[in-house]
Design a protein that fits this description.
CATH superfamily: Galactose-binding domain-like
Number of domains: 1
Bound molecules: calcium ion
CATH architecture: Sandwich
Helix content: 10-25%
Shape: globular
Number of strands: 15
Number of helices: 5
Structural class: alpha+beta
Largest sheet: 6 strands, mixed
Length: about 230
Amino acid sequence: MYRKTLLTLTIVLCVTLGYALSTVAVELGGEAEDATIEAPMVVATPSEAAAQGGPEPVDASGGKFVWSPGPPVTGGGDEGFIEFAINIPAAGTYAVWGRVVAWDGNSDSYWVNWLPADADENSQETGNTEFRWGVAGGNEWHWDRINHWLDSGTFEREWELPAGETTLKIYTREDATMLDCIYITDNLSEDEAEVAPKLPTEGVDPLWTAVEAQGKLATTWANMKETH
Ligand SMILES: [Ca+2]
Ligand SMILES: [Ca+2]
């Protein structure tokens, strides 16, 4: 009788814990300045933006951001990119938020391809609007969910991704557009207050070690099962 109760309790615990693990929200984040960077995109500080005649967005996460140095020019840019290697912990549908500054209408866009969900296409060269991100303007750091700015309108993007290694490329479209850090989530709400994007320092998993972290969880769980 005692054994049977224990068995029942164990099963209930397994199911509950399994459910809890499967519903843990995925939150990943990283500094733009930690990505692989291709010139003329460079790491910069707020005072360097001010020196180009732009705003001085002082509270960059980690003190730095990336951009193709301004000032903004009409039709300018389209050279350089940054690339993030991201380990996706679980297959699913994801959204990306960027912390940005865009000081005018000539410094407010990128091209974005996230492989393997997106076509392996250099959208900076092809100019495919499917991958064009119209960045929300503003002289202070603010979050903007990556969208596609189509000729017919601007719509939030989402990506269906398998677990494992993925590559997010953000190409310069207009010089002077500034990117501080990114936040990846499986919360697909378009309401920023509901999503509440976090800085890389605010408790999210790093982009690079997320799979390892999940592996540790699985290991811990296996150990628990062995000892009970
Ligand atoms: Ca623009
Ligand atoms: Ca930063």
